[in-house]
Amino acid sequence: MAPLIAPTPETLRTTGWSDYALIDSGDGRKLERYGRFTVVRPEPQCFWKPARPELWDMADAVFDPEGEDEDGRWSFRGKAVDLFPLAWNDVRFNSRFTPFRHLAFFPEQAANWEWLDGRVRSLDKPRILNLFGYTGVASLACSAAGAEVTHVDASKKSVNWARENAALSGLEDRPIRWIVEDARKYVAREVRRGSKYHGIILDPPKYGRGPTGEVWRLFEDLPQLVHDCAALLDDDASFLLLNAYAARISGLSLAHLTAEATAGRGGVIDWGELALAEESPRAAEIGLSFFSRWSAS
User: Fold this and answer.
1) ∠ at Cα 101 (97, 104), nearest 5°?
2) 198 CB contacts (<8 Å, ≥6 apart)?
3) Which pLDDT tens digit goes with each residue over 216-267?
4) pTM score
5) Residue 259's closest CA among 235, 295, 234, 232?
């Protein structure tokens, strides 16, 4: 029985929490609060004007892009800062002023963290695989909810940061495997081993490199990886979550790829967009990535 694709998309909106908020946006930028710092970063989708322009000049840090890529440099109003601690529910992690405009996590993913927390808590000691796990917030959210987690990322630095975040969260003794490897190679080996998981998280970049120079290209490599991940789902698996950031992709296309990979399993596939919602009175929203989520029920 084929899974049922939801007939309409869903927008998963992340609103602010104690350590994060989208304060304002406009003129191709966004003004955010990360803990005690206010930060200005580029966001080309913000075609509108800022609602609270009087706040922008007081930002603690501004990212100045260089060229069309995501690299650049930070300018600080006070003393330069490297990293600082934040929290989301039971997860503690370090945010960092990276040279790629990101702060070592993606706040719009909080909508997915909330969903993962609920799915994992409904299961009995599930085994979860997180591919392209970056600094580990999703892995730690699953671990805090009671899962046995395998965290895979091609970057040794990112995996080290994730392990630091596990220690900050008091989860360093939980059953979490930290793997530095190309996701495709790891999954192919797991398929050969006959390994099985109750839930799989996939959050690949548009382009990347593995630890030994392997090249990842989203449009060329994603279809086979999703099919291989589906082969790792246990008979009583709960979910397969796929998230992607790319201008030429859509939640609907991800949903159809997921449906093809999970054919014969039944279940449902919801799909759509992740967005950040301003805490300003006008509550403007910025769509930032697309998702597809297969659920057994």
Assistant:
1) 55
2) 123, 126, 127, 128, 233, 234, 236, 237, 238
3) 999 999 999 999 999 999 999 999 999 999 878 999 999 999 999 999 999 9
4) 0.96
5) 295
